[in-house]
Amino acid sequence: MSETLSTRDRLIANAARLFQERGYHGVGVAEILAASSAPKGSLYYHFPNGKADLALAAADWASVQLLHILDDAFADARDFQDGITTLCFKLAKLFDLSDHWRTCPISSILFEAPENVMFRDKTRTIFDDWIAAVAAKGREHGLEKSHADQLAEAIWITLQGAWNLARARKSADPIRKIPGLVFGA
Amino acid sequence: MSETLSTRDRLIANAARLFQERGYHGVGVAEILAASSAPKGSLYYHFPNGKADLALAAADWASVQLLHILDDAFADARDFQDGITTLCFKLAKLFDLSDHWRTCPISSILFEAPENVMFRDKTRTIFDDWIAAVAAKGREHGLEKSHADQLAEAIWITLQGAWNLARARKSADPIRKIPGLVFGA
Amino acid sequence: MSETLSTRDRLIANAARLFQERGYHGVGVAEILAASSAPKGSLYYHFPNGKADLALAAADWASVQLLHILDDAFADARDFQDGITTLCFKLAKLFDLSDHWRTCPISSILFEAPENVMFRDKTRTIFDDWIAAVAAKGREHGLEKSHADQLAEAIWITLQGAWNLARARKSADPIRKIPGLVFGA
Amino acid sequence: MSETLSTRDRLIANAARLFQERGYHGVGVAEILAASSAPKGSLYYHFPNGKADLALAAADWASVQLLHILDDAFADARDFQDGITTLCFKLAKLFDLSDHWRTCPISSILFEAPENVMFRDKTRTIFDDWIAAVAAKGREHGLEKSHADQLAEAIWITLQGAWNLARARKSADPIRKIPGLVFGA
DNA sequence: CATGAATGAGCGTTCATTCAT
DNA sequence: AATGAATGAACGCTCATTCAT
User: Fold this and answer.
1) Of A105, B37, B59, D47, which sits 20 to 30 A from A94 (CA to CA)?
2) Mind telling me which residue stretches traverse the membrane in this protein (chains A, B, C, D) (predicted)?
3) Is there contact between B27 and strand E, defined as CB under 7 Å from any strand atom?
């Protein structure tokens, strides 16, 4: 990650990436610190509650990244289906670039953390925010609210499942086939 | 778990349950041993390669459980959609009973394990076996092969995604709504 | 080792070789059993006191081997110095063949064992027996008893030291230079 | 060991002594930590590669001790033989004080360690350094270089072998008789 | 605002041994 | 005479965290 970022931001970005690859328990704080070129004690300066705090911040950061990708996908979209198709191809490309491994950063980070009410609540919030953002894109392209909400949730569910299958098959095909599944063949 | 099971089987069943709840790295072998009333060294007698071996065996065991649930769901099914609906309600009930936490045992066990070729290969095999089993049910109820295959894969993707959303929302509703998504409202 | 040996003899021969390479604590009974194609429980049938018993038997066996090499070296010896020179070249060759690692089997086995009176006593007995055997060769070739005894002890001391230096230098040269040291250049 | 030493130095000194007594595999890190009044994790702070790192540091430390003993022995030496005689008597006394057990610390530490290229290389380096230091003493007392080198190597070989025999016999006599062997009776 | 030395509970694993058969 | 399943203490090591500076 760029050296122009602050120590705090480097910790967050590296934590997000590493957790996405190997899960909350699969990555030690020492590895995150080393990847961020941060000294041992600095984690607890920036995140007083330690690893859990950092994971929550990393999930927030990853959520913002996902919303940026959504916005980019819809920047030149002719209609809703076109925007979603672009989105899926963007996510598929990222997946291909990650050795067919990095899937949903939120699920990767938060579902593997200790069964903690704060972790689960944040997951729900981020999921719902993303679904709402997709639904908003639908309404912007003329869909009725209830239809947009339904489609957005279906897209999110399908994306989550496609990520899992793509990871198992080492292939982004399931991600690219999402529009076909959601909008009909 | 029942005391009538062998030490090996108790280890597998407890490992499957605990990994499903907190992931491969989130559960220590000491906890699995304690839950199984097995002494420390017996794990390595039954599973010479240790925790990784046990996780693979637990994934196999969980896969068999999932296939049994599928068979049960189709025992009295009028048609394919009826069988899938029963299946989803059975899975939703299990999810409710687990404090809204236990989702796909295969993903829970194998995606959180070390990024190991053997783990990913087994995930793909079990996923594909399950999809093939669902497709077979489809053909038994008169569906054409290509249609059955497509539907089975769509069902699996949707189930995986619905499990994720259900866990975030502490509600089995997404699981119960799978038939509506896959077969059309 | 040959399959014609009894389980007991295979255990002894493999234990002697493995202890010689990595010391008493450096080799586990499981490895000795595996190398001997012997079942897990059979060690305690043949050696009721376990690993320590086996190590004592292995040291005895190695001692007999060393005495055989001594006899071979003196079979055609013109005089005492000639016999010792042949002996050193034989030992140097064995050392070369062992990747420059296997030195005195007795020291390797017994000095690394737990500080046990039985282990130390056996070491002394085997050392003294070997020195006495060399002294006997001296007397057979006309040396006076006191001179033969002194030379034999000097040879043994020099051989032990040369083995150490040879191991550190990955070269049998120190072993081949023993006659020059003991008999004068 | 003195409480005024740093944790790191206490670890090294205790490790050197314990390894010298029972070999690399014969001493557990827990015992070294306990002897050093150091907590479990501190070993890996000071020696990131753990037990192997500590053994290498202990060998270096022991090497320095041996060179100090050499310097002390030659502080008031009339000639080379006198210095070597003093050295042997000093080493014999240390051997007597150790319950006739502690011999060459370098061999004790490094030959019993895993067959690792780094361990063997360090053994050779320390051996050669010690031989060179003895040869330097010889030249300081008027010996020609080639003669000094030969004598130094012979002294080292004889010392190693004498240590082995002394240990087996529970007697420092072989160590005290080294000058007679090397310089002629 | 930042650091790195220090901590001890816990990690997955290996150990020599025992025992019922 | 021989076996392999079972055992739990001990192994070397990693962990997230604390704290004095």
Assistant:
1) B59
2) none
3) yes
